[in-house]
Amino acid sequence: MLDDTTPEAPASNEVQQAGLSITDLRLFKEIVDVASARGAFKADEFSAIGETYTRLTNFLNHVDAQNAPNDEGEEETTDTNDEVSEETTEETTEE
Fold it and tell me: What is the dihedral of CA 14, 18, 22, 27, to 10 degrees?
C-alpha cells in the first residue's frame, strides 16, 4: 500500500519538455480564428489580439517560406514540429 504522504515520481512518458512547437502555434492561430468568429473578444481587446495575431501569422509565414522547396527542388531541413527558440521568435518579430 502506498503512503499518502509520499509523492509518486511521474512516469517518464508523463514528463514533457517546456516549449512550443510550430504545430502548437498553428493551433493557437486556429483558436483565435474560432474565438473571433464566435464573438469571444471585447472591443477593447481587439487591438492587442490583432497585433499578436499578425505577428503570429507573419512568423508562421516565415517558417513556411523557409520550409518551401528551394530552387533545386529540395526541401529545407527545418521540421515543423521543432521547438521555437526565443532567438527565432525575437528575430521574426523585429522584422
Answer: 70
